[in-house]
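Troubleshooting log. The previous run stalled partway through. Resubmitting the same two chains, unchanged.
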Amino acid sequence: MKDTHLPCFRIKPDFYDALAHHLAADFEFWASLVGADGLCRLQLVASPPENTSSGLPGIPFKKLLLPPAEPLWSWDGKTFQSPDPQPRRAVFGVALCDLQALWYLDQVFAEDPLYQERRQHLLIVGGPCQPADQCRCHPDESPLAGDLFQTHDHIWSLSNRGHAVLKELAKWLGATVDRPLPKPLQVPKPRADIREPLFRASTGSAIWQQSSQSCLACGVCSAVCPTCYCYDMIDHTDLDGKSTRQRVWDNCFFSTHAKVAGGHDFRPDRAARLRFRFEHKKFGFGPLRGRPSCVGCGRCLKACPVDIDLDQIAEQLNAGEA
Amino acid sequence: MIPKLLKIGVVHFAGCSGCQLMLLNCEAELAILAQRVDCVDASMITSATCEETPFDLLLVEGSITSPSEQQHLQKLRLRCRHLVAVGACALTGGINRFDAPTRETACTHVYGPVADQIETFSPQPVANFVAVDACIPGCPPEHSDFLDFFGALSCGVWPTQRDAPVCMECRTRELRCLLEEDHLPCLGPITIGGCAARCPALGIPCEGCRGEVSEANRDELCHLMAKTHLSKSELKRRIQRFTGGENV
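Second attempt completed without errors. Output:
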């Protein structure tokens, strides 16, 4: 993250009103709000919130890019139809870890036209965050994506699109300042990493069995993870003969996740599935191998009903407790 | 594509008929459903009965509780090309299985002094006696279960059977976790989804009516539920309610 090069401007008092006014014609506004039940959700709002740090939404904003059940196409017996066009959305108050997750998803879905269409329709405005107990982010570690980053007195442009927006609002901007993005100063605990050879050698380790014994395979860890993107393909046919193919959020702990035609299961038990999830989060996959896909947002740790902690497993492996 | 009209029947054994009623309650879709299927025998749907004609598809609701029911079911199996077990009673014995530990007392209570002359046995799932081609879970099933089922059939395939738990649907809807946050005895982690977390969305813990996922981690859920202050036997009954009273 080369934030010394990010253009930053001091803002004049009415800047946010001007920004909202400028975007209102083209965009829906989305922001994180804490509901009466105490849960923080990213939701449609009437206007951009004044306070930008309302905490991490339980389900990250991947839900806008990869909806839980997303139609890919439908067929009515005569013609194929593409999904409806996506609304333009401006998302406010996105924390740094989620901006890193966005960068990650952008790489993974670089060639996915539906993702790209949704992505083009999002304007993402980052905001400062207040680390919680489970946070383990590495703000300097990986690149981030997004368009703007706002605090109460400054705004940074993170992309060409962000730059273009600021250009339109030049009269509400003050001087350019050389100022880094405000990062969380105190993260409760650094994320535990592990070297890949040590992980590879752990195949037969009892740690996987022990740590996965309590796993309920409820799927929550990946539902809340900002970089989990596994999906299943489900076909659905209406009684009138209209068929729709959907991609639906999946989870590596589900019994069908690694099962293939003929009934073979590449990961037949929870120990193998936990090891797989650990590998994916700590080392990534494919061309991104070697870069953790975990951004340290701590959502899985907070949401897991049985407190499975990938960092604790890394620490155990590092300590040779196999 | 206009598929051939399927000759279907619904047969009812021990149960409340709620499954059949749920099918009948798909009011918005009944007219189009009637263009896809010819319902030749179903106690709540048509006055017609069909003694001999073969069925393309027979939906079976309810559990089997007597030798005569067992024989009837087996004869029906010979008459149908495909047999589908519908609802918790047909799939596991359902709540009818609750009699299991005190069956004699229950029979005496219901039948009085002639209890021992009536030949019955503890309610059994349909699959204990005949081959089952497909299952529709639930107590009762959702409208969408029936509609997806007949929709898939109209394309000549069975619907996709997913094994993802209610928990996943609950989180996807961003509902408050009743188990974690409120220490309520929610069976969402081990119950097959498909209901879009209907009960948790109303603040009611999942009661497991759609049956268990294939690799349910009951031990750990029981462990977690210790926080709910239910007694061991209450906990056991809760988990057994729709799963056929197997040992927990």
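Takeaways: Residues 3-64+78-177 of chain A form one domain. Chain A touches chain B at residues 37-39, 41, 58-59, 68, 77, 213-220, 223-224, 232, 234-241, 243, 249-251, 254-256, 270, 303, 305-306 (CB under 8 Å).
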